[in-house]
Design brief:
It holds the Pfam family Tannase. InterPro entries: AB_hydrolase_fold, Tannase/feruloyl_esterase, TAT_signal. Belongs to the tannase family. This is Tannase. By secondary structure, the protein is α/β, with parallel strands linked by helices. The protein folds into two domains: 334 residues, Alpha/Beta hydrolase fold, catalytic domain (Rossmann fold, 3-Layer(aba) Sandwich); 158 residues, no CATH class. It is built from 14 helices and 18 strands. It has a twelve-stranded mixed sheet, with helices on both faces. Strands 1-2 form a two-stranded antiparallel sheet. Helix 2 links the parallel strand 6 and strand 7. Helix 3 crosses helix 4, helix 5 runs antiparallel to helix 10 and helix 6 packs antiparallel against helix 8. It starts with 10 loop residues before the first helix and ends with a strand.
Length: 514
């Protein structure tokens, strides 16, 4: 099932196949077909440690084609876990592809949310909750306060794999063919899930599209707490308008480096704006003090130990500081996902008062996070040799203005990937990283976000057309495209050619950073 196989001459007649169907993504796949059996008959399919809860044939509407909806539950004996999986199979015009969707935050995904876009594009699709419902990190604890390692493993890596195995088997049974492509598509936690699949289960997917990936999980969440800790220790909750003023000043300073002033730090590598230059500046919430500036610099620099040694990265100077350092009304409010990590995974204390965490304890908790959870959820293993050898392709991107997941952590991962895989030229044969300047978490911000990463991966997997750059788009509130910009492959950046509209991607080229 891993790789595209030559279809037998009689397959079309046997299955009533439509040999070539163009998907909504603009790509085509051989083996497209109508089902070989009824939706109801899938209820009798026997899969290991799996209960098929329901099979429902859903009629087409004006917005979604007809499909077979399957709900199933996978368990891992002797544990009493329940990994819920939703599978949706087009009743006609299947494009010969399977696409799994990822989750976000502490949510593994939604097995009940119909993937309308994937179905419209002709994909068979699936999603899973990875063993727990909701977006809270509380699933990590049993009722007696001990760690639930089965659910942690389900969320960390096992649930997505079990979804892939079960869903692909149902695709095979429904359409009567083992010849189809398998893809994973996700952002944030979903991006992490995709890269975890490449690391742990290299034959599950032919292609992986990952955005804003929350790799380096064990360092990301302690780092999200860093700014809040520093403000508490300094007795200075820097108001949001001062944080915003610092971000805007950094953008103004570094913006012109790419050859155009457009409110975006395109040439992100060289931006080293110092917040201390703002001391004495008047804002709507008061004058920027030396303490304010020092705290803002610490948010940009990221966590350091007692000797000033690097622990992890901070936010980019073009990213909003307020999401992780929420100081509305002069009171600190830590980022919820990071705080859940401290409560449920590290201290195992749901009632934790974060204000009791001292600097020394923070350093110990940071170390605990890495040591205790590295093997189960870190998702930063740079050895993708098995995925490469299986013929897999992965493309991932990250916005420099991401206010939640530290952009330079993804840069760090790709650099280590290149080192482990034999250098840049060898790595880009199967893995490519793209940088979206000015784009927030999975989208938003002032920059242009990838318009169709999945299609780029499909073209790479099925036609050998490796993406050299991605098409980026920025839309207004009505969905109208107001700017296009090339999203360049790391380490290049988009540089203005010096003529033409700066809202048109054709007037930029991907070049080396100064």
């Amino acid at each position: 099932m891993r790789r595209r196989r030559t279809l037998l001459a009689g397959l079309a007649a046997l299955l009533g196949a439509v040999l070539v169907v163009t998907s909504g993504a603009g790509a085509s796949a051989a083996g497209s077909s109508r089902p070989a059996r009824s939706c109801a008959s899938l209820a009798a399919v026997s899969l290991p440690h799996t209960v098929i809860v329901s099979t429902t044939s859903v009629a087409a509407t004006t917005s979604v084609p007809g499909y077979c909806a399957i709900q199933l539950v996978v368990t891992n004996p002797p544990a009493n876990d329940q990994v819920k999986v939703g599978v949706w199979l087009p009743s006609e015009n299947w494009n010969g592809r399977f696409q799994a969707a990822g989750g976000g935050g502490f949510s593994g995904g939604s097995p009940t949310a119909v993937p309308a876009a994937a179905l419209r594009d002709g994909y068979a699709a699936a999603a899973t909750d990875t063993g727990h419902a909701g977006a809270s990190g509380s699933f990590a604890l049993n009722s007696d306060g001990t760690l639930n390692w089965q659910l942690i493993a389900d969320f960390g890596y096992l649930g997505v794999h079990e979804m892939a195995v079960a869903a692909k088997e149902l695709v095979k049974r429904f359409y009567g063919t083992a010849s189809f492509y398998s893809y994973f598509n996700g952002c944030s936690t979903g991006g992490r899930q995709g890269l975890m699949e490449a690391q742990r289960y290299p034959t599950d997917f032919d292609g992986i599209a990952a955005g804003s990936p929350a790799v380096n999980w064990t360092k990301v969440h302690p780092a999200q707490f860093w700014g809040q800790l520093q403000m508490m220790l300094a007795g200075n909750a820097v108001p949001q308008c001062k944080l915003a003023a610092a971000t805007q000043a950094a953008i103004t300073s570094c913006d012109p480096r790419d050859g155009v002033t457009d409110g975006i730090i395109g040439d992100w590598k060289g931006c080293r704006f110092d917040a201390r230059t703002l001391i004495g500046t008047e804002t709507a919430c008061g004058t920027v003090t030396a303490s304010d500036a020092d705290l803002i610099n610490k948010m940009w620099e990221g966590p350091r130990d007692a000797d000033g040694e690097f622990l992890w990265y901070g936010l980019e100077r073009g990213a909003s500081l307020s999401s992780l350092n929420n100081t509305a009304g002069g009171t600190g409010v830590p980022f919820g996902i990071g705080l859940d990590w401290f409560k449920y995974f590290l201290t195992q204390n749901p009632g934790l008062d974060w204000r009791t965490i001292t600097y020394d304890r923070y350093l110990l908790l940071f170390q605990q996070s890495v040591l205790q959870y590295q093997a189960v959820i870190a998702t930063d293993d740079p050895d993708l040799s098995a995925f490469r050898d299986a013929g897999g392709k992965v493309a991932f991107w990250h916005g420099t203005a991401d206010p939640l997941i530290f952009f330079r952590g993804t840069v760090d991962y790709y650099q280590r990937l290149e080192e482990a895989m034999g250098g840049a030229k060898s790595t880009e044969k199967f893995a490519r990283f793209f940088v979206a300047p000015g784009v927030g978490h999975c989208g938003g911000g002032d920059g242009a976000a990838p318009a169709d990463l999945m299609n780029a991966v499909v073209q790479w997997v099925e036609h050998g057309k490796a993406p050299k750059q991605l098409t980026g788009q920025k839309t207004d509130s009505s969905g109208n495209v107001v700017m296009t910009r090339p999203i360049c492959q790391y380490p290049t950046v988009a540089r203005y050619k010096g003529h033409g509209a700066t809202t048109d991607a054709r007037n930029f080229t991907c070049a080396k950073s100064f």
